[in-house]
UniProtKB/TrEMBL annotation:
InterPro entries associated with the record: AKR_Detox_Biosynth, NAD(P)_OxRdtase_dom_sf, NADP_OxRdtase_dom
Protein name: Aryl-alcohol dehydrogenase
Alphabetic keyword roster: Oxidoreductase
GO molecular function: oxidoreductase activity
The organism's taxonomic lineage, starting at the top: Archaea, Methanobacteriati, Methanobacteriota, Stenosarchaea group, Halobacteria
Pfam families: Aldo_ket_red
The organism of origin for this protein: Natronococcus jeotgali DSM 18795
Residue ranges constituting the NADP-dependent oxidoreductase domain according to the UniProt record: 15-313
Keyword Oxidoreductase: yes
């Protein structure tokens, strides 16, 4: 495993963050407690110390499963991240968004499910257009001061919103967002335009979600729907990576290099993330021990500058996805 510093938090994290969105129930590609435990144990064997979940994943089941799986270990070894903004286990009208009431209630519920006293990283899952950002930041800052949260982060939003939040924190002396969890992979690179330069200027760590385009970059273009997860993405109006103008060409080039190096397509797509200066640690979302092992092996794969140029060259700008 390789480790890196999570921006200004100073925490040391594995270059692979294990995404836990697939822990829980409701879809047949999801892992129950026993299956998830096996994945988490193998991840820890391989040196992964960084885990990402959210109150909304399977209505809190993901947090519960992750907490159970980590309970046999020394909690201090791990950097655990969760999120708030969408409803968790409760569905009443104050179970979502970013009011002080929601944040305080949802944070306690997340900690309870995780079986932890403190979260290492608490992220707002999206911007809340109804609650002033100062209200949200004050509630989050209080959680930091109460020792319930160590660091704050944000996920997919406009760069101007992220900067506004950083400015309010600075002006009011509140804990700032120190990480950005955004959508980024070879077939979706819109974050290079504004968000990554902002993160770079402020020493904000980045943790791209869907680094394989929800599996699109892990298999040939025409086969996106051949897995239950891929089918789910297309049927449930996930981001239409397979329809972007340059995607087929990019996917073909990933496949070509995978053949040349004798590795899996997913390993080329991840190797591109690992060599990318924009990226601190991608959040890999596998439900398979074999695929997790492939992801870790990809750390050893070094792409040449001309490989990187070849993979990036066909990209064409597309509409912004992942936030509104
Ligand atoms: N902040 C947000 O709004 C947001 C949104 C979405 C996700 N996330 C976070 O990001 C994490 C990852 O998201 P994601 O699941 O969309 O990520 P992803 O890594 O882009 O895609 C995962 C998909 O790729 C497949 N895959 C992985 N490795 C493979 C391999 N070696 N060969 C073939 N297929 C492979 C997986 O199938 P297998 O399961 O069969 O391996 C799965 O279907 C989530 O768990 C969550 O923590 C955050």
């Amino acid at each position: 495993m390789e480790y890196t510093t999570l921006g200004s938090t100073g925490m040391e994290v594995s270059k692979i963050c294990l995404g836990c969105m697939s822990f829980g129930s409701g879809r047949d590609w999801m892992l129950d407690g026993e299956e998830a435990r096996e994945l988490v144990e193998r991840a820890i064997d391989l040196g992964v110390n960084f885990f990402d979940t959210a109150n909304v994943y399977s209505a809190g089941e993901s947090e519960e499963i992750l907490g159970d799986a980590l309970a046999d270990y020394d909690r201090d070894e791990f950097v655990v991240a969760s999120k708030v903004r969408f409803p968790g286990a409760d569905e009443h009208r104050n179970a979502e968004r970013l009011s002080r009431k929601t944040i305080e209630q949802e944070l306690e519920a997340s900690l309870d499910r995780l079986g932890m006293d403190t979260l290492d990283l608490y992220q707002i899952h999206r911007w809340d257009y109804e609650t002033p950002i100062e209200t949200t930041l004050r509630a989050l800052d209080d959680a930091v001061r109460r020792g319930r949260v160590r660091h704050l982060g944000a996920s997919s939003m406009w760069a101007r919103q992220f900067l506004e939040a950083r400015r309010v924190s600075e002006r009011e002396g509140l804990a700032p967002f120190e990480t950005m969890q955004n959508l980024y992979h070879l077939a979706y690179r819109e974050e290079e335009r504004e968000m990554f330069p902002v993160c770079d200027a402020h020493d904000v760590a980045t943790m791209p979600w869907s680094p394989l385009g929800a599996g699109y970059l892990a298999r040939p273009h025409g086969e996106f729907r051949t897995t239950t997860r891929g089918d789910h993405e297309v049927e449930n109006a996930g981001v239409p990576y397979h329809e972007f103008p340059a995607s087929e060409e990019i996917n073909g080039r990933v496949r070509e290099l995978a053949d040349e190096y004798g590795v899996a397509m997913a390993q080329i797509a991840l190797a591109w993330q690992f060599q990318n200066d924009n990226v601190t640690a991608p959040i890999v979302g596998t439900s398979s021990v074999d695929h997790l092992e492939e992801a870790v092996e990809a750390l050893e794969l070094s792409l040449s500058a001309s490989d990187v140029e070849y993979l990036e060259e066909p990209y064409e700008p597309v509409p912004v996805y992942g936030h509104e």
